[in-house]
Amino acid sequence: MKKQVPRQSAKEAAVGYLSHRDHAEKELRQKLKTRGYSEPDVIDAIAYCQDYNWLDDARYAAMMMRNGVAKGWGALRIKQEMKMKGVHDAIVSQALEDGDIDWYEHARDVAQRKFGNSEIDTPKEKARRFRFMQYRGFDFDQIKYALDTNDDE
């Protein structure tokens, strides 16, 4: 069964998607292709949106960065989410750099919100908290700092 030809132009569809929220270029390209637009139409639509600055991966990455921090994610998780959306590595790195976040303090804030001031009384509880923080995208040193664990004492 052949896909039905879309009623609106690829440009109109692209603008429609972007009117709801920012998209990464790769994400928008994929949505347009899925709706049945031809490759030349998709290329034209993306170029059109970029000409008017409606499609900007750097702005999208900055928005993803802000949203990720607000959700309590660490740099690793934010980076992974951006890569899944097709944001180029250089843009991801620049967004993380421009974000000017103290990841150690951010990790401590996230741990405080989740666990409060309760003590880590068992190795099982410590492992559970480490897993939670790892899932959120914090690295080992940030987690140690956030949970205030000093294994070497």
Automatic annotation (TrEMBL):
Gene giving rise to this polypeptide: recX
Record-given protein name: Regulatory protein RecX
Domain RecX second three-helical: 56-96
Family under the similarity heading: Belongs to the RecX family.
UniProt entry tagged with the keyword Nucleotide-binding: no
NCBIfam families: PRK00117.3-3
Annotated coiled-coil segments of the chain: none
GO biological process, one term: regulation of DNA repair
Keyword Cytoplasm (UniProt): yes
Organism phylogeny: Bacteria, Pseudomonadati, Pseudomonadota, Gammaproteobacteria, Vibrionales
